[in-house]
Amino acid sequence: MTDSRLARQTAERLIGSRAQLLKFQCLLGFDGFVDEIYQVVEQRQSPTKYTPYSSLKNFGTKVTAAAGKSANFEIVEQTTKLGGNGPIMAFAMSTLGAPVHYVGMLGYPELHPIFTEFAKRTKVYSIAEPALTQAFEFADGKLMFGQHATVHEVSWETIKKRLGDTTFHKLWNQAHFVGMVNWTMLPHLSAIWKRLLSDYMPTKPTARKLMFFDLADPAKRLDADLHAALKIIGEFQQHNDIILGLNESESAHVAKVLRLKKTPSNPKGIASLAAAIREKLELHTVVIHPVQYAAGADATGEFFVSGTYTAKPKISTGAGDHFNAGFVIGRLLGLGMAHALQLAVATSGFYVRHAVSPNREQLVRFLQTL
Q1: 8 contacts: CB under 8 Å, gap ≥ 6
Q2: Contact, 127 vs 162, CB < 8 A?
Q3: 164-218 pLDDT, tens digit each
Q4: Segments in 105-218 forming alpha helices (H)
Q5: Do 352 and 316 touch, CB atoms closer than 8 A?
Q6: Which of the residues in the chain have pLDDT under 70?
């Protein structure tokens, strides 16, 4: 199937999806960040005009040259926005029409103002103050520096104390979809998962939830901790249909920890890697999204689709979260792997071009142009 035909078919499925999506209650958590997005000035021509570093590579060369000396860089703030894998993914899903409940770090005891619009689109339950990320964006990548003190507050005890076990248990039971993301930055997330498995799993067969897990750059965590977390994710599969979402570097790290055979860094090789991770962990679905394409595997086979790459993104922070949102929406709508991947790359592609989350009509029109 050609990419344009796949995109047109995906657009057609999305056109009439409003009523269908409203049937699915979605629960996501647990992080929350304030994202400050900056450019780094390479040359300033006037008080109002400057040229930013176009590439991370060029900026890196300049930083390396300062070793043993010093360097002074001017930064210019582009925008301040809600951040965190959970809020960005939840916001994108709600914009596409899914009913979303969000539990996380959105300001406590008062909601942080950056999440005001988010709270209008979703039902929020805030349990801690947000952390701060300062992202320095370049055409070929980004550097993200974080102040993460409040992530330590996200624990089973905090959820029960500030939200209440009855409320959280009810949200869990009523959810058709659950997304739990940013394992790397939430030190107590594995412990939360263990409590969910011990306290909330059904004792008799019930309708299976669709569940999504995202690790968020696990390189800074111990390999032993990552291996244990992957094992816990696998335990949710008994009563649920699990999707594990990875970017390319995360997939390589997971493959190393799982001692899987190396595959080529091309679409077919990455699809094979998704299948190998899926088989090893015995999950429903594994999806991997490099920058220029996306691949995945489920019981029906291995798939890959071309991305909607642009050399000049308006924003890149949050692109992966939009990919994840699009993929999950596709799965909730019953799309097969190829069409769900197409919806995912389109959701991400629209976002990086326009720096806003697409609604259904905008995404349909974007798909029709591919």
Answers
A1: 367, 368
A2: yes
A3: 999 999 999 999 999 999 999 999 999 999 999 999 988 777 889 999 999 998 9
A4: 116-121, 156-162, 165-174, 189-199
A5: yes
A6: 1-2
Could you tell me which residues come within 8 angstroms of residue 238 by beta carbon, excluding any fewer than 6 positions away? 201
Taking CA atoms, 33 is separated from 86, 182, 257, in Å, by 9, 11, 28
Q: Give the residue ranges of DSSP H helices in the chain.
A: 3-15, 18-21, 56-65, 85-95, 116-121, 156-162, 165-174, 189-199, 223-235, 248-257, 267-281, 319-332, 337-354, 360-369
**What is the Cα–Cα distance from 135 to 113, expressed in whole angstroms?**
20
Residue 56: count other Cβ atoms within 10 Å of its Cβ.
18
Pairing of strands 100-104, 131-138: unpaired
Domains and CATH numbers, the chain: 3-36+81-369 (3.40.1190.20)
Q: pTM (2 decimals)?
A: 0.92
Q: What are phi and psi of 169, to 5 degrees?
A: -60, -40
C-alpha to C-alpha distances, 99 to 81, 94, 178, nearest whole angstrom: 22, 6, 12
- Name residue, tokens 């010093």: 70
